[in-house]
Amino acid sequence: DETDRRREKQQAHNEEQGITPQALKRNVKDIMELGDITKSKQQRMNKQVPLSKVAESSQTYEIFTPLQLEKEIAKLEGLMYKHAQNLEFELAAEKRDQIEKLRQQFITNS
């Protein structure tokens, strides 16, 4: 089998070179910070949004007071970190995006 052949070849190479394979060591927080924040404003503005994401039926559109926004952001941050700890990165990213939208709304309303 090709997979076994490659695995044996890699293990032989690692033994020759004295390499001990190690798992990737990254904090969940580091992974979460790799989202849209790393992109420049111009890149975010030029991003193409899939048609399915333009108006999702699960999304609610409400106007919050600043106090309500703070509470909602805190709640979503808790959920985001919970999802990240459970290695549910797609769900955590969705919460991160929702938080960013609420923060923008907070800035606009303030």
From TrEMBL:
Record has Transmembrane helix as a keyword: no
GO MF annotations in UniProt: ATP binding; ATP hydrolysis activity; DNA binding; nuclease activity
Keywords linked to the UniProt accession: DNA damage, DNA excision, DNA repair, Excision nuclease, SOS response
GO terms (BP aspect): nucleotide-excision repair; SOS response
Cited PROSITE patterns: UVR
Alphabetized Pfam families for the sequence: UVR, UvrB
GO cellular component: excinuclease repair complex
Region called Disordered, residue ranges: 1-25
UniProt feature, compositional bias: Basic and acidic residues: 1-16
UniProt key word Endoplasmic reticulum: no
The protein's name in its UniProt record: Excinuclease ABC subunit B
UniProt source species: Vibrio anguillarum
Lineage per the UniProt record: Bacteria, Pseudomonadati, Pseudomonadota, Gammaproteobacteria, Vibrionales
